[in-house]
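pasting for the record
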Amino acid sequence: MYYQFGHCLVDTNNYKIYRYKQVISDDAKSIEFLSLLGQHYPNVVEKNYLIEKLWHGQAVTDSSLSKLVSDVRKLVEPDEDNICYIKTVRGSGFRLNEKVYISPTNPLKQPVNHAKLNLIARSFERLKSLFRKPAFLLITTFAVSAIFLNAYFPASNNINQPTKIINPIIRVAVLPVKSENTPINEWIKYGVMSMTTDQLNSYSSIQTIPSSTVIAVAETIDPSISIDNDYQQYFKTLCGQIGCNHIISIQYKLDENASPVLRYHIYDHNQRTSFNHFASNDVIYATAQMLDSLVRDLLPSQGNRISLSDTYSNNTKANRDYAIGVHELLSGDPVAAMSYLQLALNKEPDFFWAKARLAEAYYQNGQLEKSSSLVEQLNQQQPSDKRDYFLQHLKSNIL
């Protein structure tokens, strides 16, 4: 993959950093750092996440990361006294402060297709006019702009060597949503794709290919090769260029009550799952149900996979944050878990299991007083065997 910002280009295929088209470094740690910032642009990448990804669980301090950032700035910044590329967000982490262009092919060898970029931008403006209701307008602007207003690089018809993946775990490409004999608008086709990609990327065990990259490369694949009629060849062609090891294909239709139904396949190099169906009176809620199932299907089954369905609240959005929080907790990241569990409680203040898991996250993070206080509060609520067992077990650990 190639990440271009300002006068710099990061080549993760060949492990090179370019500035003004000249190679300035082949340092692996610097390349991994910049590629992580590029993958998450324009968001802030937290320090703990960077340390986890760059040092793979080794015991290092913030000073190691600070030293790396200083070294990278010396490489790429035009003026060390006037930082313009790598921005420090105090108390959080770092982000790239320059527009990032992501491409599966080398942009130094192939110029940007500005005509196509303009066409996409015009298409997006027309798309916005289709959705006049405030809710649809908000969702459309957020989801579709994440795909189409990113800079677009046309992909080569030649299949490149597989991208070198940094610490690969599960690397997923989500395809644009397809219709089953039902008219489909651009928001469902690309908005649900973008939502699914963004939500899956919230899990530290899952890495997602940017939607704009998937679209760009998918357009170059021979139309006679489709995920439906020859998934192994399609998988080889797509993932050979963008480095995925799983593909998610989502289909959309309306049932007899004109309610949206989503279903999906997960493909790897030699098999695919059976379809799972998710119906709701709103496509957003159908997508939320689908995401919960997708995560259960994608994540490894060893030890940290549990069923959460009997611990959910009646608030679908709160359940989604809760599920991510529990996953982060079981993956050994109590700080990230606390953030997501608190989001769930902001949406559903009386969510018992979100509070219980938050108490567990406090305990794992060494905040014993806060954990003990929350356990005591929960003990005052309506008991059940499962709740009592969980709280007593946690209380015995605290003591």
